[in-house]
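This part of the workshop introduces the protein records we will be handling. Each record describes a single protein and holds just a pair of labelled lines. Instead of coordinates, the fold is spelled out as a row of discrete tokens. To make this concrete, we reproduce a full record directly below:
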Amino acid sequence: MTQPLAYIHPEAKIAQNVVVEPFTTIAHDVEIGEGSWIGPNVTIMAGARIGKNVKIFPGAVIAAVPQDLKFAGEKTTVHIGDNTVIRECVTVNRGTIDRMRTIIGSDCLLMAYVHVAHDCIIGDHCILANAVQLAGHVEIGDFAIVGGTSAVHQFVKVGAHAMISGGSLVRKDVPPFVKAGREPLSYAGINSVGLRRRGFSDEKIMQVQQCYRFLFLSGLNNNAALDQIELELAPSPERDEVVNFVRNSGRGIIKGYSRNGNGAD
């Protein structure tokens, strides 16, 4: 159902049961799946690929061109998965030649005033709280939660099931399954509550905890800690995810917490 005061370009591909509220603009080269609701005063630009049952609230701007001076007008896209909710005044920019697309997964919640820059990849079931700002090329794993007003540096990676405290400056990679807080951003334990809610057994949670004891509490450098993890802990998807994330970190991971308020080596 389209309100008469909305504008939809005739080349846009909109499923029949999509609701488009008044004063919304939908450009050409846009696709919107069944059951989605596009609220009033939303702007959806060329290159948007929006899934089923998505809700987009007033003031959001989807698929605007990247805020990147290297962008040369290449045809790029934004992909938003099924059942995702985009709240008021969220901005999601298209990709650049680097990845050609910006991706937001399924069943995500982006609260008001979130910004997702070009070439970001956000997994499924993620929550970005109010006014989270993602720079370009950021990657966020499934079920990760980023607290309100946090700013994430370009090329940073946040692992699956991680939880980042509100107001954080995220300059380094945040490994999977952890809580991160304080300034500078530091390891604050594993996200045991979130893992239990998602069905992780006590045995799996204990193994994750043992991984991070080697990494943050043993006094070993990261390479030595990873060697000890692989030597002493039985292989499992969780253990391997931690090891692979840390080993492949481009910016380096956050540090452990020290009592003097600085990240410990």
Summary: The longest helix spans residues 202-216. Residues 88 and 112 are 5 Å apart (CA to CA).
